[in-house]
Amino acid sequence: MRFMKKSCALVVAFAFLLGFVSVVIPLESQPVQAANGEKVLSGNAIGGTLFPEGTAAIATGASYTWLTEGIHATDPALIASDDTGAPDMTDGSNGPDDNTSSTTGSAEGSAAYGTLIYDLKSVYKVSSVKVWADTDNNSQMRNFEVYASFDGVTYNRVGATDNVNPPGSGFDPVTLAVKPAVYAQYIKVIMHKDPAKQVMRLGEVAVYGDTLEQMAILSNNYLRSSGYFYNTSLPKIATGASYEWLTDYPFVTDGDLIKYDNDSSKNDTVGGAPDLIDGSSKESDAASTTNSIWGSKGKFGTVVFNLNDVYQIGKIDVWTLASGGNKFMDGYEVLVSTDGVNYSSLGYTPNESSRTANVIVNTPGYGVPSKHAKYVKIIMHNANNSEILTVGEVAIWGWKLYDPALPKNPTPDQVEFTAELKNYSTLYLDWSSYNNVVNNVNKYGVYIETSPFASTAGLTPKFTAEAKSLEQVGKYLSYFALKPETTYYVAVTPFHSTGGERKDVETLKMTTPSVLGGEKVGDIFAINDAPYGGGNYVHHGETEDVFLMNKLRLLRDLGGINKNRWWDHSSAMKTLYGKSGLNFHYFYHGPGFVQSDNNRGAYTFSTYNEPDLAKRDPAAAAAALKANHDSLKAVSSKSLLVEPALAGLDRLKADEGLNWLDALYNSDGQNGALVKTYFDVMDVHPYVKYEYPAVPGLEQGAPEKLLQSFQELKTVMASHGDGEKPIVVTELGWSTYTGGSYLKTVDRSTQRNYLARAYMHAIANGIRTMHWYDFADDGTETNNLEHNLGLIDWNGKPKESYYGYYTLIRVLKDSKYLGTVSNIANPYYGYQFWDENKNKYITALWDASWKTTSSSSRTAQIATSDPGVTIVGIDGSYKYMAAVSGVVSVPLTGAPVFIYSLAGVTVNSIN
């Protein structure tokens, strides 16, 4: 089991807040004919009204199922009204009779969905999807979205479109052109009922595309004679690929893995080929394997393959030794890149083999449609109780995206591209499937406008990917200066090496989300770390710039940090961080900075930092907030004033914390009716101080105290009529110091556990952004609280909390929060999420009473209808657990585990 993982005459474009987007082609009248070269792939009946005799089709043997789990679970009435003998969605007929269509239950004013998953039985090139839905007075499909997958487990959103058919047009089709076309075996179609209508009646769904050549080996594995799995009968593309082991943090390869690889002196029968591509799947001796040093528990082997051109990855083989229980890779993560700098995670693949198989076993993983790669990074994780990581063969399979040997085009084709919004300010553009060789293109222009355009004549590109630049070679751009809640039209143009720019374009329409986001869990992830250090910071001397760049790289590698909190408005620093997908939250220094900050993507500002600790007069503070709010909004209505950054959420002192907040509200003499209009977002620093009373049964300082603190904050806000204001946290953390200040001392593993638990408590309480304080230790004094709050140490080495944050982001960033896990109570905690890309529930569980050194673990008895579940630990471990009589026994400690399941799970008991 695997989880990981775009007009000249545009009729309509669906405005996307997140994910990949696609241009919509004009609607066609019935009978529907596919575009040139397209064939029906989804098994629809040929010979009727919709698909007359002669309609181009491929007998794929495709079938579909209705999805019954998750946020977009199919309305039960749709399933009940489907004809199992001649399924309505592929019977080639439209209705209006119920024998050829399916209908949701009657529910005006509410949402309902029909979610289909088509299995095409093999991988095809998918170029469009059509949906026929009734549009009478009571029935309407509002829109639909499409996801694609190779393995039926990890999906990628490849397009969506609105239904603009007018009422009374019957079952006219709605068409989504998937541009660029994607390679996929599984297609998920989520059809959304118009909430204003009583029902949604669906007549037919069809997937169009064409065949692909056979998947081939891309990784330059040596093909041996018969008797080996990797033999001369297998298809192979001569990529000339090579690989290297990574020795930089965060995922440092054990030295022995490198030392014993590429052992040309050993007799591997093929002249000393590197072990990972020597073509041997029977690795029985050191000549064809490489091993880590004994004692490598929980360590990594990180390898990067350079395929020398961009390909669609289909499958990955990773052969490792499972022997005696103490030699076992529990799983790996795959990341892909077209430029070698910007990587995208395809997710984790757990090793489902027996630990005592005593042979080299294959742990196959799969690519993700539209996630193309020139570089493939594989991070293998030795199990936390495995002494040695032994790696044999690694093979990467896939397809060419284009043929560079075709005749050259005198005029270059238009550029088709995908686009993904990381947040309101950062846009990722990928046109890696574009055939620049055949089109003789060596430069690209990127246009991003707020009005539609069909030609770039008279326009200036926002970015030009010059010849031999990283963006031109990788055909990928991270663009970071967008405005929130703004509709943009985007195009990429090709420059012929001798003929100049092709100016006619098909634009992509997209709308950015709000400043605070909230469409997905991952909008919460942020950091508080001054690039040049704070008041307790120890400078690195001559190596300070090296440390600064290394820190930024590690921040980027976390893969989901949206924002950093800082006081300096440095243009150079904003550009550096922006190119890495990170924005800034700034202190407000007057209207003179606002426009330039906005132009570089920053839209949140603060006046104060912990004014209660500074003993600021609440009335004076309120007056300053009003002045700054008026000044800020006069320059930029979209900018937000975020206040007041309270130092705590307690009432231990009369002039601090919530007492100070009460005084701030009351300073207007109207119970806050005026003060609440002086700022846009509530900002607090809810440190769990050592002096706070502990949650019953838990240690003082545990993050579960946040549940009480957040509730008390919300009570205060509501009492002043400010209960609907969004809340952010611009500081929170725990220090790995030796103690003596206001925070309890924690070891590194506990800091990691507390980080994960604190973020999930914040997510459950609707906190919009939380900045962990801080990223790097400010120094090396063991008894200095500020010197030990970081996720990496002063020398730049990641601590356990860095890896915990990495895992938390990977697991939750694309998910949506569902609620708390039922049937558990303190000291046990749990939350449930749904990830549409993974098509799975994610259930987080932990025992908050567990102590790192003195407690034995508890065991949760988890009921599931799945044959088994996959578990990711915050410690970086992976495990597949088969269910026995519908139950899986999951050990619980203070380190959260994340349980992936197709259907929701329940906790029967905890022993």
Round the mean pLDDT to the nearest integer and report it. 92
Largest sheet: 10 strands, antiparallel
Overall SS class: alpha+beta
Rg over alpha carbons: 28 Å
Q: How many individual β-strands?
A: 43
Helix residue percentage: 10-25%
Q: What is the tally of helical segments?
A: 11
Q: What portion of residues belong to β-strands?
A: 25-35%
- Give unreliable regions as ranges: 1-35
Protein name: F5/8 type C domain-containing protein
Domain F5/8 type C: 104-194
InterPro entries: FA58C, Galactose-bd-like_sf, GH, Glycosyl_Hydrolase_39
Region (Disordered): 78-107, 269-290
Question: What can you tell me about this protein's structure?
Answer:
Residues 104-194 form the F5/8 type C domain. With 911 residues, this protein is of the alpha+beta class.
Write a short abstract of this structure:
The protein is 13% helix and 31% strand. The protein is an alpha+beta fold and 911 residues long. The strands form 7 sheets. Strands 9, 10, 11, 12, 13, 14, 15, 16, 17 and 18 form a 10-stranded antiparallel sheet that branches. Strands 1, 2, 3, 4, 5, 6, 7 and 8 form an 8-stranded antiparallel sheet that branches. Strands 27-28-29-30-31-32-33-34 form an 8-stranded parallel barrel, surrounded by 4 helices.
Give the topology, please.
Blueprint: E1 39-40, E2 63-66, H1 76-80, E3 102-103, E4 113-133, E5 141-149, E6 155-162, E7 173-193, E8 201-210, E9 216-217, E10 242-245, H2 255-259, E11 290-291, E12 300-322, E13 329-337, E14 344-350, E15 359-362, E16 365-366, E17 372-382, E18 390-400, E19 418-421, E20 427-430, E21 441-449, E22 463-465, H3 470-474, E23 476-479, E24 487-496, E25 500-501, E26 508-511, E27 525-528, H4 544-557, E28 563-566, H5 571-579, E29 583-587, H6 591-599, E30 604-606, H7 618-635, E31 640-646, H8 657-666, E32 681-684, H9 705-719, E33 727-732, H10 748-764, E34 769-773, H11 800-812, E35 816-820, E36 828-835, E37 840-847, E38 858-863, E39 868-873, E40 878-882, E41 887-892, E42 897-901, E43 906-910
Parallel strand pairs: 27-28, 27-34, 28-29, 29-30, 30-31, 31-32, 32-33, 33-34
Antiparallel strand pairs: 1-8, 2-4, 3-8, 4-7, 4-8, 5-6, 5-7, 9-18, 10-12, 11-18, 12-15, 12-16, 12-17, 12-18, 13-14, 13-17, 19-20, 20-23, 21-22, 21-24, 24-25, 24-26, 35-36, 36-37, 37-42, 38-41, 38-43, 39-40, 39-42
